[in-house]
Amino acid sequence: MGIERSLADRKGKQFCELPKETTTNNRSRRNRRRLRKSSSPLPVQKLYETCKEVFASSGTGIIPSSEDIERLRAVLDKMEPLDVGLSAEMPYFRTTADQRTPPITYLHLYENSKFSMGIFCLPPSGVIPLHNHPGMTVFSKLLFGTMHIKAYDWVEVAAENGASALVDTSSGTAPSRSVRLAKVKVDADFTAPCDSSILYPADGGNMHCFTAVTACAVLDVLGPPYSDPDGRHCSYYLNFPFTEFSVDGVSVPEAERESYAWLEEREKPEDLAAVGAMYEGPKIVENR
């Protein structure tokens, strides 16, 4: 709106004022150039530029400063579906009767070695299974819809094998399984508009599962992004109630047991249907 009004003001002056001298015209041209330079970028462009600054020194396990975290959060909190060209009527958010597992659509916005930006589009009942974000700081903004999020952080347990405890199944007949104790950090429904969520390398729910209660879209910013060569591999997990296994020296008060679970790493789920699609929202200009 500010740009439109400025254009209207300049048009009015062109008709109402005669040019007085060359210096005035030069000054007017400089003012117009200054106005163009000072105009606010589109929200997605502002997000990119903020990420570029916040993650300038990004690396595995490196967390941005609290000031930078709040700065990026403030930009994300203002993001709306139209800012990235989305609406709930798009085909990504529909399901058909013959689809047992609704596909998840990923819209790639941007990625370099420091950070990545993308949008997950989930139809009703769509699920992004429990997975981790090793050494990463992740910002998530629910753009529209209702989503259930369940997230965990590891609990350090003194065991012979370090942080992972090798335990026997409760039946006593099945082979041992390598599981690790985790604490539930989030287990709730979220409905847009709501504040952005942030998870850290070892806190804030680094392992999470998304379930679409309604059609929904979530904008994710990862710093740094996944990278197999750098040891940032996406791992998937099964979760078991705390009472499923017994480990010597590990105990939790009965009233708190629902807040803990055993996680077991698994292969990528075969029924995970995820497809990529072309991002058609406002373009990001890299060299501003």
Structure overview:
With 288 residues, the protein is α+β, with helices and mostly antiparallel strands. The protein has helices at 2-16, 22-38, 43-54, 66-77; strands spanning 104-111, 116-122, 127-131, 137-144, 146-154, 165-167, 177-191, 197-199, 207-212, 216-223, 236-241, 260-266, 274-277.
Tell me briefly what this model is.
With 288 residues, this protein is of the alpha+beta class. The protein has 4 helices and 13 strands.
Low-confidence stretches: 1-24, 31-38, 159-166
Summed up, the helix count is 4
Query: What is the CA-CA span between the terminal residues?
Result: 22 Å
Report the helical percentage: 10-25%
Instruction: Let me know the largest β-sheet.
Output: 7 strands, antiparallel
**How many whole angstroms does the radius of gyration measure?**
25 Å
Give the strand tally: 13
Structural class of the helices, strands and pairings?
A: alpha+beta
Given the C-alpha coordinates, what overall shape results?
globular
User: What proportion of the residues form beta strands (DSSP E)?
Assistant: 25-35%
Please trace the helix and strand order, writing H or E for each element.
HHHHEEEEEEEEEEEEE
Roughly what is the average pLDDT, rounded to an integer? 84
